[in-house]
Amino acid sequence: MEACAKHREEWAEVLRIVCMFWIVLRHFVSASYMEEITLFLGGGGDNVFHYFFSVFAFLGGDIGNVVFMILTGFFMYGKAWNARRVIRLWLEVEFYSILSYVMIVAARYESFSMKGFMESCLPILSNQYWFISTYMVLSFFFPVLNLVISCLKRGQLKALLAISILFFSVFPTVGLGSSWLFDPNSIYIFVILYLFGGYIRKYDVSFKRGKLTAAFTIVLAVCMLSVPLFSYLNMNNPLAWIWGPARLPVILCGAILFGIAATFKGHDFNKISRFSFSVFGIYLFHNGKLLPLLLNIVGINNDTYYENSYIIHMIMAAAVVYLIGTVIEYIRINLLESVLLKILYKPIDFLERNVKDYFNYAFYD
């Protein structure tokens, strides 16, 4: 029974690995020559395979963000708020932020300054990583969001999700609404995706793999083909309607991909899922200030797009960085985190008990 329960969650770990690799690939492709994606095929000696591979990789970054937030809602719904979980993530962010700064200064990509060093020590407040910064702030509201999911009836929760998606996804996708309210990377969409994941968990929503696979293929194909079409029609930004996790096509792809993965509940993916521990570490390692140095190491620049081996180069570069990030994360967890947590757990637990007592466990349990 224990082994079966373990296998039920391995589908999600594999999904996390796939999405993170897709995100790394997107950042590398964007750095290669993203402007080329917005050009109509046939211009500048373009290669059709390079072109659509780039669009595919570009889409994957935001689809991955959507999937991660749905997974968060799915697994955090019904769980008590845990300060240890937040502290572990905070220590992880601190480690990679400081490591990145030290490495770029040592490699002379940036001169040392007290301001830069302080920003690396305060990565959440200085927004070094937009996704993690938003995620960590939102994590303090998970208990409140869980309460919303618990208190609302199924029809009410459906209505809330439908209205929220209309205002914060459909409208921005078609170019309606104020930019400050409908920022494609805003915290609003993270809340909606969390609620959606919690809804699936609460009502144990089932999925049919065949239909979802067909739907995912169709939506992804429409997104990819729309870019050269909108370029041909001389739209200012052909990527606008698929740029950011708030865009409706991106949300659809992410939600459908989650549903497809969920149909593999009970399957044994242990040989793959065991590497999921490094997912957030890889995001923090390859993104932010360290990205230019990593791009130089793996040989990616503005001309890489025109190489005959462009696709293979991108996949291999992403795989190498993913592997290096996994090794660094393994070392960090076993040599640094294990020691620090032993020191911090007692004061953290004391603080958590007092916070919960103050709020009478209303939200934080």
Mean pLDDT: 85
Ranges where pLDDT stays below 50 over 5 or more residues in a row are 1-7, 41-45
Distance between the termini: 27 Å
Kindly provide the radius of gyration, computed on alpha-carbon positions and rounded to a whole number of angstroms.
Answer: 21 Å
Helix- and strand-based class?
mainly alpha
The counted number of beta strands is: 0
Instruction: Classify the helix fraction into a percent range.
Output: over 70%
**Looking at the structure, what is the overall shape?**
globular
List the helices and strands in order.
HHHHHHHHHHHHHH
Number of distinct helices: 14
Please report which band the strand proportion falls in: under 5%, 5-15%, 15-25%, 25-35%, 35-45% or over 45%.
Answer: under 5%
Largest sheet: none
Could you explain how this protein is built, in words?
The chain is built from 14 helices and no strands. By secondary structure, it is mainly α. Helix 1 runs antiparallel to helix 2 and helix 2 crosses helix 10. Residues 1-7 and 41-45 have low confidence and may be disordered.
Topology readout:
Blueprint: H1 2-33, H2 48-76, H3 83-106, H4 114-121, H5 130-139, H6 142-151, H7 154-173, H8 187-202, H9 209-232, H10 248-262, H11 270-273, H12 279-286, H13 291-297, H14 310-358
